[in-house]
Amino acid sequence: MGGKSGNQVMYRRLVQRVFVGDIPSGRDFDACRAVLKTDCDDPTAFHALCILLEGALADSTFGIDATQDLVPLLKALAHGEVMAKDLL
Fold first, then answer.
1. Strands, E assignment, the chain
2. Distances (CA, A) of 78 to 46, 49, 54, 63, 82
3. Alpha-carbon distance 73 to 86, whole Å?
């Protein structure tokens, strides 16, 4: 698995892990998960997903392997290489 489509599959799996998991935890992160379950627009999905992923990145209980995958995902989101809605 390589290239853009391989990354997209890996990113989607990582997003699903954070989306359905309990890392990060807290009201703000639960609110982001709730927003992402709705039919929100792309900027809203981008914002909610970034908050959720940044929270996972900052959580010391999130595995180092997953953390290493989060950084390129956040960069890809920031550069518009992937869209938040495509990862949900």
1. none
2. 9, 11, 12, 22, 8
3. 13
Report the alpha-carbon distance of residue 38 to residue 17 in Å, rounded.
18
Tokens representing 28? 């703000």
Residue 24 preceded by cis peptide, ω within 30: yes
User: For 30-88, what is each residue's pLDDT tens digit?
Assistant: 999 999 999 999 999 999 999 999 999 999 888 898 899 999 999 999 999 999 999 98
What is the rounded distance in angstroms from the CA atom of residue 79 to the CA atom of residue 72?
10
- Cβ(70)–Cβ(77) below 8 Å: no
**Quick one: tokens of 51?**
């908050």
